[in-house]
Design goal:
By secondary structure, the chain is an alpha/beta fold. The chain has three domains: about 60 residues, Roll (Archaeosine Trna-guanine Transglycosylase, Chain: A, domain 4); about 100 residues, 2-Layer Sandwich (Transcription Regulator spoIIAA); about 190 residues, Vaccinia Virus protein VP39 (Rossmann fold). It is about 30% helix and about 30% strand. It contains ten helices and 20 strands. The strands form four sheets. It has a seven-stranded mixed sheet, with helices on both faces. Strand 8 and strand 9 form a beta hairpin. Helix 5 runs parallel beside helix 6 and helix 9 packs across helix 10. The longest helix is centred in the N-terminal third of the chain and has 18 residues. The chain is globular and about 70 Å long. The structure holds S-adenosyl-L-homocysteine. The site of S-adenosyl-L-homocysteine has 20 residues, from helix 6, strand 15 and helix 8. The site of S-adenosyl-L-homocysteine (SAH) has 20 residues, from helix 6, strand 15 and helix 8.
Length: about 400
């Protein structure tokens, strides 16, 4: 697994390097042949049809995405390599001067570590291995993380779906020793509770951290509707920034309980209301009741994970945006998002435009929004961009 080009197994591509010079994914159909009988999860040297080095990456014949390039150099993938790459990821976050103690420390392709996600919550890191190769490298990864950020408790929360595809046993638990059940982290002026190993993502929606603070700048004095609220993090930031009141709508009772706890933790229970409801129904109900809001946040789950279901997803986005625009008072602000990979920023804008036309609402674009900078987007790997949003003002 750790040997250099000379002795390591080789994978040869059918064609010249092309896209694989800047994109890390190699599909099974692109492979012309193998030399040296690599085992699933081994690091292989990838050569193009003309024998030029493409890079080295983890190989797994079980998945259609059979190899992900880790380095463009002829260097061993070993503990020192992981330490360097994780160190670079940590240095990038440090340079960003992020507003709190919670951030994504390693973001897979976005950090040149395809198949590895690491989130940091103060003294805890949560690691997700998405490939067999990464799962086998876990001890090296943990050592690299501790080398980069100091003594942290490492919790492993592999995704069962990815583990099944790659053929390894997903882990869920502390890697070595024990860690805290919950961690309270700061995000700007607010504090959030992370229940390690439970809930969505690895605890918080870190990809929205910067947007929460950006949207909160518009919150002072306004009545807020936080739809698809999860643990109410947008509402908490809005209240911290002086919002008058907030209504959180969330269908999952567990997430709702988390929202209640975080509103209490921040001292906002008196100014907030939680509704365990389907946001589609609740938006309709609020409209019938002629409710009005000064700030609406729409942060739904992905409405499609498949390209084929794009039209149905677009209808869903249009419906909630149309209703939100009707619920806004004049001068009201809408922060609306889509985290569906397959919905492009242009398509999302088109859907929001159609919603505004149907609502008869003139909406000023204050800012386009994207994922927090600790989820870096690589120009040559468009799949690294998934979260898009618009901050709109009703004129
Ligand atoms: N804004 C949140 C993240 C929201 S994730 C944050 O910053 O932390 C989307 C949330 O929508 C999830 O918590 C999910 O449980 C909830 N959800 C999914 N479908 C829903 C529906 N139809 N109605 C209400 N909530 C829903």
């Amino acid at each position: 697994m750790s040997s250099g080009r000379g002795s390591s197994p080789r994978l040869r591509l059918r064609r010249a390097g092309g896209r694989s010079r800047t994109h890390p994914w190699i599909y099974a159909g692109e492979i012309a042949g193998l030399e040296g009988a690599p085992e699933p999860g081994d690091a292989v040297t990838v050569l193009d049809q003309a024998d030029a080095l493409v890079g080295r990456g983890f190989y797994n014949p079980r998945a259609s995405l059979a190899c992900r390039i880790l380095t463009r150099r002829d260097e061993p993938i070993d503990p020192a390599w992981f330490a360097r790459r994780i160190g670079e990821a940590a240095a990038y976050r440090q340079a960003l001067d992020l507003p709190g103690q919670a951030h994504r420390l390693v973001w897979s392709e976005g950090d040149g570590l395809p198949g590895l996600v690491v989130d940091r919550y103060a003294e805890v890191v949560v690691v997700q291995c998405l490939t067999l190769g990464m799962s086998r490298a876990l001890p090296w990864i943990a050592a690299g993380l501790r080398g980069a950020v100091g003594e942290v408790a490492v919790y492993v929360a592999d995704e069962p779906g990815a583990a099944r595809l790659e053929g390894f046993e997903p882990r869920r638990g502390w890697l070595d020793g024990d860690g805290p059940e919950t961690v309270v982290v700061a995000e700007g002026p607010a504090r959030f509770t992370v229940r390690v190993g439970t809930g969505h993502k690895t605890g918080l929606y870190l990809d929205q951290a910067e947007n929460r603070l950006r949207v909160a700048r518009w919150a002072a004095g306004r009545t807020v509707l936080d739809a698809f609220a999860y643990t109410g993090a947008f509402a908490v930031q809005a209240l911290a920034a002086g919002a008058a009141r907030a209504l959180c709508v969330e269908s999952s009772p567990v997430a709702g309980a988390g929202a209640a706890a975080d509103l209490l933790l921040n001292g906002f229970s008196g100014r907030a209301e939680l509704r365990a409801a389907n946001a589609f129904d609740e938006l309709r109900r609020l409209e019938r009741a002629r409710a009005r809001f000064g700030l609406v946040i729409l942060d739904p789950p992905p409405f499609t994970r498949r390209k084929g279901a794009l039209d149905a997803a677009a209808r869903g986005y249009k419906e909630i945006n149309l209703r939100a625009m009707r619920l806004l008072e004049r001068g009201g602000i809408l922060a609306t998002f889509s985290c569906s990979h397959h919905v492009s920023p242009a398509r999302f804008e088109e859907v929001c435009r159609a919603a505004a036309e149907d609502a008869g609402a003139a909406m000023r674009t204050l800012e386009p929004l994207g994922q927090s900078r600790d989820h870096p987007v690589l120009l040559t790997v468009p799949e690294t961009r998934y979260l898009k949003g618009l901050l709109l003002e009703k004129l």
